Amino acid sequence: MFKNLTIKSRLIFFFCFMTAILPGTELVALFGMSNTKNSLTTVYNDRIFAPQQLMDIESLILKNRLAITISLVKGARAWGFPSLGRLSRRWAA
C-alpha cells in the first residue's frame, strides 16, 4: 500500500495520522491527572483530618482530667466538665 505512494504523500499521511492521535493521547493524560487529583484529595482527607480530630479529642480529655484534679484538690465534686459535651460530639464524628 505504501510502496506506491510518493514521499510527499507518505509524509502527509504520517502527519495527519499523528494529528489524529495527539488529541486522544492528551485526553487520556488529562483523565489520568484528574484521577490523580481525586486520589490525592482522598489521601489528604484521610491523613490530615484524622490526626487533627485526635489532637482535639486529646486536648478535651486533658481539660477534663485537669477539671477532675482541681475538684479533687479543692474537695469539691467533679460535676459539669466544661469540655465533656464537645468531647462526646467530636468522638462520635
Q: How many domains in all?
A: 1
Helix coverage percent of residues?
A: over 70%
Shape: rod-shaped
Summarize the helix and strand pattern as letters.
HH
Give me the number of helical elements. 2
Oligomeric category: single chain
Strand count, sense and barrel status of the largest sheet are:
none
How do the strands and helices of this protein lay out in sequence?
Blueprint: H1 7-74, H2 84-92
Summary, kept brief:
This protein is 83% helix and 0% strand. With 93 residues, the protein is mainly α.
Description:
The structure is a single chain. By secondary structure, the protein is an all-alpha fold. It has one domain (7-92). The chain is built from 2 helices and no strands. The chain has helices spanning 7-74, 84-92. Helix 1 runs antiparallel to helix 2. The longest helix is centred in the middle third of the chain and has 68 residues, at 7-74. It is rod-shaped and about 105 Å long.
